[in-house]
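Ticket 4471: requesting a sanity check on a complex prediction with S-adenosylmethionine. Repro inputs:
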Amino acid sequence: MDFDAIAPSYDRNMQRFRDIQGEIEEILSFLEIKPHHSLLEIGTGTGEFALAAARRCARVYAIDISPGMLQYAREKSQGQGISNISFLVGGFLTYHHHDGPLDAIVSQIAMHHLPDFWKQIALLNIASMLRPGGRLCLRDIVYSFDPGDYERQIERFISKTMEKAGPGFAQSMTSHINKEFSTMDWIMRGLIERAGFVIEREEQKEGFLGLYLCKKI
Ligand SMILES: C[S@@+](CC[C@H](N)C(=O)[O-])C[C@H]1O[C@@H](n2cnc3c(N)ncnc32)[C@H](O)[C@@H]1O
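Returned structure tokens:
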């Protein structure tokens, strides 16, 4: 997907499909963010979460591999008078944090860009940047339906997406399922735990959306 090109329409499309504000509040309450904390968001996209987090903590590092998404997010932060976010070009595998251990790391709908082996490396990198007891929130397209029934499950999900967000978005979900690296819930759980996290809460929604609220051991 060309994220540089879709930045301006991204928020509008996502709002038809997700409860963005509800998601943000759910994550912020799990993270127990304090005013002196610093937080990293990986794959920030248009920065909706980073902007909300920046109002509650000392510094947010918002990284993405798409300069177009970052520029869009940066302009939004300037428009809202928020100055404690560092927008940086960087990815799951290439970003290394040099400003001291982080209190929290968040990534939403982004890790599926990596095949499973590289998800494991990304999670080890994430663990190395967090302080002990630091929190990780990971949300992504993760498959928790019965693979024996995959055709019916995918058909049901795509037609629900069509109803909620229209044919363009349903088409992009079809392409996601065919070409991207969403994995199964039990694999994702193993990858997270093997990187040194305890999963404190896990939710699977509609067989396609996984949320993992974790603490570094
Ligand atoms: C579907 S968007 C999600 C944006 C935002 N986190 C959200 O919840 O709406 C995926 C984002 O991940 C970014 N991305 C893709 N591969 C990445 C990687 N290897 N490292 C970091 N970000 C990546 C894309 O540029 C894009 O902005």
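Notes from triage: The first helix runs from residue 3 to 17. Leaving this open until the requester confirms.
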